[in-house]
């Protein structure tokens, strides 16, 4: 209990250090004279011993050598001992010279003794501290569980990660190997631990019972990171990640900062390289509106816009609580940005007109929308008034107040829509494309799939179900979706907005579609559990309006490349604004009766390829 709860008083450590110095000097004399000290040397030994003890004590007191907790001895403690002993030995050498030439004509301590004492003293002081540390670690970890760990990265971050894990007071981590891709390091040892070739990772997992894999490389290529994580998960190895250096606490890595790898690490792609000069030209010294600013996409868009020198940023959302939290975070991150937080509903024409008159925006990013497919399927009226009427009100006011650019965020569900939500977004796309034909305002649409971590995303739902012990619910074993991270999506929105000349529907490279079943299994494995054993997976059937597979282009569309490899332009049919406006006005007037069937019937007239799926509106398609 003393080892765990107590520590030696500082004065006890001080006297132990002085005793070791006295012992070291005695040992030095004996080593010098082969343990047979001549009488004439021995007669003066007590004077030398007294002098050494006084000098060492003074130096130790000034340098505070005794102040460190011995069981936590580290490199800085060893350096302090080295400096203090060196200082004392320099004093001895200087005193010898003074005594030889100016006082007695003799050495106080023979120089050979000074050198031997210097070596033995450092050795004894450091060894005694390390011995105490080892004894403490053995005692502290006795009875604790031992976890076998492999560290990917035999560089500085890997060493620091190992030392951080060594300091964990709860669990004993047994580092069985460092893993690295550098051929010059493979086969060598780092702090006594073998360095293994990264290509042998699978063999390492098969031959050793590895529980955790720590990723300790700061700039991991995304494809490499993904393959490593997948290999680990296939062998039931939990994966941990060392955070970037800038997030270390006061430049030091704490064990608590080594976190579990997130599912986003498996779905992310390589970093996007933006044409920031084009975005800067678009946003510099401009007043910018962001609607839906408290949502997952809107808030990230606002944060990214704030990194550019905008004149004013106006963030609009109807959710009071969400705006409150957005304001608190925004002021902390960007205290010097001129920003206004506005509670407003895009469906309120008077409110929106007032905001345009008050702030006179030059650029509008429209992210406000209702987006949950099953809910909108039974609330067609709300889908129309939020996604169609709200967009129309914003677009009309943008035209009226000479907004330079209007960028709308759409969805892949607008392609060959099978649900009310996707169809409502397609009608909004058609309206702003039509407006773009006869006005100075440039109307631009961006279209992408699901975003990781957004409100209502499947990933937070899976995590919550796992925390509750399961089961994890999936609509269908074959369902797939496209995924993109929120920052990635917003970066591409800014890039597309900057390059847009008006009328385009920009679609983003979403990578390969992801099977939701595989996604659920990986999330369960990343939680340290086994699918089907610890957490059951059950199928609930497709929800109203859902597809098995999402699309980014409809069958009649093709794409035109842009200078950015991740952004394409959809080659779509543009309908005359007079035709679209008449249809939209008829739809809005019809929707006032709150008859969802008639609303959806009209939507199908406007969009002939709107075929309902797994929905109560399928009977309309039969007619």
Description:
By secondary structure, this protein is α/β, with parallel strands linked by helices. It has 3 domains: 2-140, no CATH class; 146-261, 3-Layer(aba) Sandwich (Rossmann fold), CATH 3.40.50; 283-450 and 485-510 and 552-606, 3-Layer(aba) Sandwich (Rossmann fold), CATH 3.40.50. A 9-stranded mixed beta sheet has the order 10-9-8-11-12-13-18-22-21, with helices on both faces. Strands 3-4-2-1-5-6-7 form a 7-stranded mixed beta sheet, with helices on both faces. Strand 1, helix 7 and strand 2 (172-180) form a beta-alpha-beta unit. Helix 11 (276-283) crosses helix 19 and helix 12 (296-305) crosses helix 19. It is elongated, with a radius of gyration of 35 Å.
In the CATH hierarchy, the third-tier topology of the largest domain is known as Rossmann fold
Through-space gap between termini: 82 Å
- Average pLDDT figure: 82
Radius of gyration: 35 Å
Helix content: 40-55%
Instruction: Please state the overall shape, judged from the principal axes of the Cα atoms.
Output: elongated
> Would you tell me the structural class of the helices and strands?
alpha/beta
Largest β-sheet summary: 9 strands, mixed
In what order do the strands lie side by side in the largest sheet?
A: 10-9-8-11-12-13-18-22-21
CATH class of the largest domain: Alpha Beta
CATH superfamily of the largest domain: NAD(P)-binding Rossmann-like Domain
CATH architecture of the largest domain: 3-Layer(aba) Sandwich
**Tally of helical runs:** 23
């Amino acid at each position: 209990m003393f080892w765990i709860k107590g520590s030696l008083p500082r004065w006890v450590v001080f006297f132990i250090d002085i005793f070791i110095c006295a012992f070291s000097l005695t040992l030095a004399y004996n080593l010098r004279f082969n343990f047979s000290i001549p009488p004439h040397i021995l007669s003066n030994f007590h004077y030398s011993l007294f002098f050494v003890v006084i000098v060492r004590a003074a130096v130790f007191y000034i340098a505070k050598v005794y102040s460190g907790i011995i069981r936590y001895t580290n490199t800085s403690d060893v350096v302090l001992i080295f400096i203090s002993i060196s200082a004392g030995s320099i004093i001895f050498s200087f005193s010898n010279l003074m005594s030889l030439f100016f006082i007695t004509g003799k050495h106080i301590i023979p120089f050979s003794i000074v050198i031997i004492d210097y070596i033995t003293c450092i050795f004894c002081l450091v060894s005694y501290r390390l011995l105490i540390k080892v004894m403490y670690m053995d005692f502290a970890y006795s009875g604790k569980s031992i976890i076998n760990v492999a560290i990917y990265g035999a560089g500085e971050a890997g060493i620091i990660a190992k030392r951080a894990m060594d300091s964990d007071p709860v669990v004993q981590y047994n580092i069985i190997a460092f893993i690295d891709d550098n051929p010059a390091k493979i086969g060598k040892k780092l702090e006594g631990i073998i360095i293994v070739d990264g290509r042998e990772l699978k063999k390492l997992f098969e031959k050793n019972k590895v529980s955790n894999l720590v990723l300790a490389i700061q700039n991991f290529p995304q494809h490499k990171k993904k393959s490593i994580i997948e290999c680990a998960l296939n062998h039931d190895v939990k994966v941990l990640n060392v955070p970037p250096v800038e997030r270390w606490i006061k430049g030091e890595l704490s064990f608590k900062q080594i976190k579990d790898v997130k599912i986003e690490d498996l779905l992310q792609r390589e970093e996007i390289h933006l044409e920031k000069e084009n975005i800067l030209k678009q946003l510099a010294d401009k007043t910018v509106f962001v609607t839906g600013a408290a949502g997952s996409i809107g808030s990230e868009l606002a944060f990214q816009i704030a990194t550019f020198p905008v004149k004013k940023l106006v963030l609009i959302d109807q959710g009071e609580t969400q705006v409150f939290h957005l304001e608190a975070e925004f002021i902390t991150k960007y205290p010097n940005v001129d920003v206004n937080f506005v509670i407003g509903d895009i469906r309120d024409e008077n409110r929106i007109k007032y905001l345009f008159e008050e702030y006179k925006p030059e650029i509008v990013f429209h992210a406000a929308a209702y987006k949950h497919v099953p809910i909108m399927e039974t609330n067609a009226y709300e889908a129309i008034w939020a996604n169609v009427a709200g967009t129309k009100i914003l677009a009309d006011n943008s035209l009226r107040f000479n907004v330079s650019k209007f960028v709308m965020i759409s969805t892949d569900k607008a392609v060959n829509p099978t649900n009310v939500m996707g169809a409502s977004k397609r009608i909004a796309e058609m309206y702003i494309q039509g407006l773009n034909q006869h006005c100075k305002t440039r109307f631009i649409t961006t279209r992408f799939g699901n975003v990781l971590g957004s409100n209502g995303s499947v990933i937070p739902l899976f995590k919550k179900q796992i925390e509750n012990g399961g089961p994890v619910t999936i609509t269908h074993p074959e369902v797939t979706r496209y995924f993109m991270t929120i920052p990635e999506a917003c970066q591409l929105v800014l890039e597309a907005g900057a390059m847009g000349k008006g009328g385009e529907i920009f679609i983003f490279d979403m990578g390969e579609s992801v099977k939701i079943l595989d996604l659920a299994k990986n999330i369960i494995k990343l939680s340290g559990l086994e699918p089907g054993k610890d957490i059951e997976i059950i199928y609930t059937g497709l929800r109203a309006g859902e597809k098995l597979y999402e699309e980014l282009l409809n069958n009649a569309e093709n794409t035109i490349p842009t200078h950015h490899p991740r952004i394409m332009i959809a080659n779509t049919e543009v309908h005359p604004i007079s035709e679209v406006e008449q249809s939209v006005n008829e739809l809005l007037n019809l929707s006032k009766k709150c008859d969802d069937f008639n609303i959806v019937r009209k939507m199908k007239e406007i969009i002939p390829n709107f075929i309902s799926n797994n929905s109560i509106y399928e009977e309309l398609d039969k007619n």
